[in-house]
Amino acid sequence: MTLIHVPRPKQSAMNPDRPASSLLLAQVAHLREAETNLPLRYHSERYINAIQTEGEAAAYIRQVTEAIHQAHEDAAAQRAKPTAREKKIPRIAAAAARASQKRSRKTAAKSGKRKGV
């Protein structure tokens, strides 16, 4: 893979006290919409119409992005855990297979006796 060099931005590129641009506020609105789809325990409880500066927008964007990542990690961990039902199925299936084998042996033994008579 080819490495692409991206130059560092100037120190003046981000000023936390500068008023947020309409593009940045639109990004905040989109993230608020994404946040509403998360479970309540991941919500930030932040009123986005009060966000006025780049620093406030950056803090909100970081908070929501981390919440989205945490929600996905928690969901993946939950899917990886076997449920109580999943734990019981293999034992039940194994017991059913053993019972089926016993029945087929009894049937074979009975049919063998009849043929010999």
List keywords for this structure.
single chain, 117 residues, mainly alpha
Task: Report what the structure shows.
The chain is mostly helical and 117 residues long. The protein has two domains: 15-81; 82-117. It is 64% helix and 0% strand. It has three helices and no strands.
Task: Describe how the helices and strands are arranged.
Layout: H1 22-36, H2 54-80, H3 84-116
Helix pairs in contact: 1-2
Quick recap:
With 117 residues, the chain is mainly α.
> How many DSSP E strands?
0
What is the global morphology? elongated
Count of distinct structural domains: 2
- Compute the separation of the termini in Å: 78 Å
- Helices, by number, come to 3
SS class: mainly alpha
* Uncertain regions spanning at least 5 consecutive residues: none
Sketch the major β-sheet. Answer: none
Instruction: Kindly provide the radius of gyration, computed on alpha-carbon positions and rounded to a whole number of angstroms.
Output: 31 Å
**What is the averaged pLDDT score?**
84
What is the helix content? 55-70%
**Roughly what fraction of the amino acids lie in strands?**
under 5%
State the order of secondary-structure elements, H for helix, E for strand: HHH
